Amino acid sequence: MLEFCLFCASLFLSIVPVCSHKYLNISGLLSLLLPFALQVEEEGAGQSITWMQDCVVSLSPCSDLLVVAREQKAVFLSAKWRTDDSGREEMTLAVSWSGTLSTEEGECVSSVICVPLASQKRSSTGRPDWTCVVVGFSSGYVRFYTENGVLLLAQLLNEDPVLRLKCRTYEIPRHPGVTEQHEELSILYPSALVTIDGFSLFQSLRACRNQVARAAAAGSDAIQPPPLAYKKWGLQDMDTIVDHSSVGIMTLCVFDQMKNASILGGFHASVKGSPPAMSQYIAVGGGPYTGFYYAVEGSSQPLLSHVALAVASKLTSALFSAASGWLGWKNKNEEDPAQKQKPKVEPATPLAVRFGLPDSRRHGESICLSPCNTLAGVTDDFGRVTLLDLARGIAIRMWKGYRDAQLGWVQVSEGRGERESSPSAPLPRRHAQFLVIYAPRRGILEVWGTQQGPRVGAFTVGKHCRLLYAGYRLMGVNSVTSQGWQLHTQQVCLLDPTTGALRTVTVPFHLALSDKKSERAKDMHLLKKLTTILRNILESEAKSVLLDIKHPAIKKQVKTTLDPEAVDEALLQLCSSQLKLLQLYTDIQQLHSAADTDTSSEALDSLEGIEEDLSRLGPTLQRYAQLTSRPSVSFAQDSPDSPLPARAFLSQLECTEDGEVRVVRGADTEWNQLGSFLFWGCLSGESPLRRVCDTLQQTGVSPQQLLSLLLSVWLHREKDVLKKPEETVRNLHTLLITLSNMKGAVEESWDPQSVSPWWQQVRTACVQSHSAAAALLAALVAHYAVKASITSRADTFCSSWEAVSLELEQWAVCVRQLEDVLVLQTLLWVPPPQGTAGGATAQCSVKTLLEGGRGGIADSIAKWVFRQDLAPERLKEILQRREEKEGDDNSEQRNRRMQTIQQLLVAVCRRFPDSLSPDLLFAHCCWEYVVQWNKDPEVDYNLSWDSIVLTGISSMMWSTFIVKRFSAAAFLMEKVGKAPKDRLCRRDVGMGDKAMTSFLGSCVQLLQILMEADSGVEEVPPPELCVEEVWCGAEGPASIAELALEQRGVHYPLVQHHCLLASLLYAAMTFSLRVKPLSLFDSKGKNAFFRDLTSIQLMPSGDMDPGLVLLRKEVRKEETHQTGADWWPSMCLELGSLLQVNPDILRRHLVCELYSQGLDLRAEEAMLEVEDKDVLGSQLLVLTGQRLSYSLLHSQSQTQPAMELLARLPPTLCTWLKAMDPSELRCPMVPLSQSSRLVSRLIEILPENHGQYSLALHLLEAVEALTTED
């Protein structure tokens, strides 16, 4: 035997990557030297230090017991106090027991854990009462020992080797919604998982320990072990399992419960009232690499062990003595080989894997569960460490380069600070999770922040260490007994066998924070240390610590600590500026409560003429206000009438170093609230305007900022402005004049020939605003104010005429544009009728219309037309009225809504005569409808918009939206060989079968429009695209009409070729024909399909394969069989010539079909166009014979005269009639007069030398005789 002596020291290893070690908080350091001896078998003289890698090591979380085992032997080391050579007492680990644990032949120790048991005494402060050593063996046994190696209990749960033992103890829930987890001991076998309830195990171990103590005192071995409850699960659907983690009980939320029920049970699945509780287990290994198991609580009853069954059933003493022998309580000299038998093993309850992370080549090696039970680290044979999110079942992070890695977790709680000293309810303490990774091949220990945190520390250690992480605390603790306890447990320890050092890893909480928060938390840590140093009067160290503090607030706190009487100058300046702002806040409030007695004759004089503008715009403004005053939902705190708190006022203003006040631009809501606070009282006439402006000017606020606030509140409170437009306009004019007279508003050196930045700011705000009415009123007021200002400067500048023409011209253009926008926006505000597509109302401004390009106005109207669902005919009728005078329309009784739409649309078209010309508007409407149809092909929109530019629009529609679906429909029908079903249409074409039929009909119409337009393209000159003079500055994308005019002309034969295919597809879908449409064309015809209609393609030649012509003829004849609209026969005849099918064949077939349906008059009209009368006569002779055969032989009402006539007929005619099949007739019941007329026509058609002429004469005689008898 070779004796190794190792000395283990527990050192405090604090991970602070930024600071040096002399600044660490060392108030809780443990400096323990713990010698112990370990006996192992001698394997040679050159024994390596890697022997610990072959051992099973477990450390109690209380650091008071260390177990090292190898094969059959083990050593228990307990904590004891000792005195070193210098006389200082310290805690050490000393051997308390060593020996052999195995009792079965050939079994070895495979897993060990040390579980500290809590004391049941009321005076306990959280230290364990004693520690139980749980040992798993390769034979399948699980045995429980005391610290002194005394066997308490043994159990054979499975006959396979024990792979891993893990424990879960009680944790106080950090949040009210967290499920309280129960204590549990889990034992993993290669194909099973056994879980033992912690409470039952705790009581059983205490009972066994008491019985062993009594038996030892009495000198007797007769003890009765208590019952032990457990659950056994058979883990299925994984090839190999090497490690596991028991996460605990989880409960799904209601949404996840309903989602799982709908997935598993379908639409009609029933959902329980409360979600079921499930135990979650994670297994790692291979196939899949990680498996997630869920066991529903209550699905399997716990199994009682055979020891409990023996005690409960009170079996004979012989049986009990045999059982006590394998439990280990029988003396060795009493063992009987006949009685030493293994107990029966209970079968496992199958548990299927719910889901997993499949990776055929990757095999997991270990899994380490985080203290919060939400994350887990997994190592594999590829040298990767994967971080799993257990709630979502996904991998969220992966580290590489960590082969044979060992994992652990460190959970750190936030220190007592601001969160607990808040004036309101104390905030809960935060917790941070850190993942500790030990890479033995590199000899490095790393600490990483989760989930996506950086590496916060790295330490070089030995390459043969063991990372010891328990993952649990004391067993036997609950929510009642844990109150007031302070559990002294270590989380992660590193055991170095070369030096005997046992180090613990401690991480400060501030490393989990980021940026400022981390800096502040670290400075708080340094402040505590500085306070301690100052108490010890260590000036040099205090100075160095003070220099390391970075956060300004902490520095200020340090200065206050060093010199309580010192006051910061910055603080005095801050208080002074805040007092100044509060005084301004109070003055403004007092002014708002005062009456407005200011009158200005100058302002009233400069407003002369605005009443005329207001009266001219009055009806439009009134209608705009009615349309925009629809009820809406808003929050009370967002109301513009809500008072502005002083805190919000102070947050938006600040004092500069010069003592002036500057406004800080924040969110739009806050900006509007500040503007309402300052100026709305003035605008509504409730506050003195000049006194408010003088107060603001004295503070030094920039006039530009005041102007921005004024315009924002004016444009934001449009509805309130329109309630009293005359009064608010007058007050706005006064405010504009007053602000423009402030110093720094309008430059004194302003040249009237240039644009003033002050008035340009007003124009920019009006042009960009979506409040059309408020923007127009503000522009009118500013226009009059500018006119007055320039008039007052006329005596100073000699070039006054140029100034007037330059500045006022821009205002005239701006006012005209805003008037146009007001009329347009009023039209857009008209709500759509109920049941239409609807959508949000388009908001327009001068800026958006200018940026929308030359077609922006027409595009806005086209979107409005779609929302209103106006038919093309109705829109055309309205547009024709814009040149007429409005009058009473008593002939048509239209509702009020349509009258409103008509009036507004006519008004818009009169303001935009060029941008909204009928051709351009129809082109945009056509494009808008096809865009909306492309979004929802199931809706059949009206696309029949007539326009001069329709050729280009149709070509763009075909290439952009239609050809893709058209080709998909053709290929689908070619594939199935018939009209496809609804499911196939939706899968390949994106619409149902009915919608596809309508779509193909629209394709035929579109291609016909292209052909008609192409044939007459030289007759109609292209239109000139013009815009109004005030909108000439529009810049943006090209309009649809411009793009349509730029389109090249289509190739007529190619369009006709596509129209032919579209007609075939339309007929096949309409009449459910069995046809492969593309097979009716040769290779050239197929290659020409679905090409650009403007390209020149190689079209089919005149010579056609006879077989293909025959196939086309059958298809055309099949189409003429069908009944439908009157235009179908003419279309079939027209397309027959394109398909090189003899039209005379189709005409004869059409005549026969009309006679077959009993439409004799229409058949006689079609008969006039037939050229080959002989063939037609033969065909009609057969049809007449079928009619007569039905009347004589197949009719249910056969009369005696008819039977006599049949007997008198010539034998040849009688035989021929019996051979006829009347079922081929679509309408066999035809009056005899029509049949007589048909036979007469036959006699006229057939020549006398015709072979069937005599048969026709016999038929004529028979029909006449039958008619006479009737």
UniProtKB/TrEMBL annotation:
The gene is RAB3GAP2. Residues 51-468 form the Rab3-GAP regulatory subunit N-terminal domain. Keywords: Cytoplasm, GTPase activation, Signal. One of its GO terms (cellular component) is cytoplasm. Residues 1-20 form the signal peptide. The lineage of its organism: Eukaryota, Metazoa, Chordata, Craniata, Vertebrata. It is found in: Cytoplasm. GO terms for molecular function: GTPase activator activity. This is RAB3 GTPase activating protein subunit 2 (non-catalytic). PANTHER family: RAB3 GTPASE-ACTIVATING PROTEIN NON-CATALYTIC SUBUNIT, RAB3-GAP REGULATORY DOMAIN. InterPro entries: Rab3GAP2, RAB3GAP2_C, RAB3GAP_N. Coiled coil: none annotated. Residues 705-1247 form the Rab3GAP regulatory subunit C-terminal domain. Belongs to the Rab3-GAP regulatory subunit family.
